[in-house]
Amino acid sequence: MQKPITSIFWPTDLLKPKPLDNLVVVGYKVDEKVVVIDFVQYSKFRKLNLKSNKPNLCLEIIGTVNFHHMNYRMFKFDTKFGKPVMEQNENLILFKPPLSRKLEYYSIKHIAVNIFWTEPVLDTIPDPENTCTRLCLHFDSRPKLTNLKEVIKFINLTEYSRYKLLHSGSNSRPLYSKLLGSLLNWIGSVVLATYQTTIVPLCGLLIFILNYPLWQHSDPERTITLSSSSFLFHQLNFRLKQFQYLPCQFLKLRNSMLETEDLIIKGTKFSPGAYIKLYNTLWLILNDLLLGIITSTLLSKYHDQLHIGINSTIIGFESFLVNLIHWLMNSPAGFKLNNELAEFFGELIMWVLDFWNEFVLQYFTRNSSTVLKLVTVLTRFGGFNLLIATILDCLSIVTFHLHCFYFSSTRVFNWQSHILRSLFRLFYGKKYNILRNRIDSNNYEFDQLLFGIIIFTLLVYLLPTVVAFYLSFVSGRIVGMLITTALEFVLVTLNHLPIVALLLKAKHKERLPGGIVFEYESNGSDAFCFKLMARPLSLKEIFNSHIKSMLNFNLINLQESQGYRTKLGLADVLDQWGRVSPIKIARKIVLGEVFGSFDYKKLF
């Protein structure tokens, strides 16, 4: 009868046993698979306690080395290849023992890189309306644990099992080590309790103030709060939430660092999610503060030059707008426009520019030095992101009149193009049926045709003037949106970059397992020999996982901003990000629709 195939997983640091020592090989058995953990000297073997309170976690004797025993097999080593000699029905699989204290471990599935504190919802909510989904809910469709998964869990137990073997039958730790550990735990508990009783309530109070509705409306999207109306207050709100969630992240990390057999065998011990979240948050805050200190120093050093440069830029920009309007009023680029309509638009815009220049821009330029000093202080103590948020707010205030010009010209162009399309259908006897949402045939009277032709002719002659002003403000809108979108992407990067995962990828990639790989190795015998290796996450997998968690974070924030009145999905989040698509922007420009960037304050 042919013997069943047995796989023996052997640590790479146990390939060269001392030839004069009588050793006992101990490990775990999982069906037809064996996981070797360590060598134990035969003289100390009787003092060891291999039993555990859980039957499936008991270490067993696998064999012996350098001596014969009537009940166990003796492993021999090939001096040429430096590997244990196996029988024909046995597969030797070598593995590097993972260091659990450094969060090294093997995993069949790749881990999720999630630096956000929200729980994932995109892949966990089934659709109850789907008949197949409702049927599946009545049955347990979860995959059963395979032997390989169980073996991987026992391989991850290697360091802990060796620690238990080392201290089995003796005092675990010296007294000074216990006292030092207790003292450090007590200091950490005191610091954590102080933080939770002082900083966390203060952060909660400030978050409540920043999100308190200044203008209440039945529609949550129209409710005005400090954090929803200003990038600066929104950044402060985000930073306060980070400080508020730090104790929770620290407690999750400390609980995951506890080395017990239950946590390791369940897989919760090897969960880098808490590790990545906590240290990524701390690293981003530290980087932000360091960049803020450096930037504030530069702002203080070049204060006078920046003050003069800001004022000259504002004055030059307003002069450019005035010259542009005068150019549009007087046959731009040689094109003959409607003088009366161009003069009407130009005088109206000039009146708004004069008003804005006198009551807003002059006040801003007179106090730009004070504003720059205030921004310098905020940057020094609040970080570089506060500077970006303040710049976005200042741009929104200074260019508010341009947004009004763009919106007004877009509405005029949209109305005119819509009327022209409707009148064009009149020539071939068609009309739009608003009730059925389709184009129907229609018999027009002579007076209707005559009146339509007159209106159509007038609008066609006025169209070039409207298009000239419309394209001018559309160009300004595109330039302004490019600047604000670029600054918003800088905020997204500095606030939500998975920098810890990238550093682990460069320095300690064993902490980012993306699966396992079996590599064949020659051992000079009939038995097969493989090497088990952890495949680290690639950069593509890191960013794909990060983008997925970020979209989940966007969905939760977008749902919260709408007051949970309607159920949103991933399509709503993608629609927000799709607003910056050049194709969609070009389509809206042609149709005369208002376009804009994604709503940063709702998504983040």
UniProtKB/TrEMBL annotation:
Keywords for this protein: Membrane, Transmembrane, Transmembrane helix
Pfam families: Gpi1 (PF05024)
Superkingdom of source: Eukaryota
GO cellular component terms attached to this protein's record: endoplasmic reticulum; membrane
InterPro entries attached to this UniProt entry: PigQ/GPI1 (IPR007720)
Presence of keyword Nucleotidyltransferase: no
Transmembrane segments: 183-210, 281-299, 306-328, 348-365, 377-400, 449-472, 478-504
Official protein name in the record: Uncharacterized protein
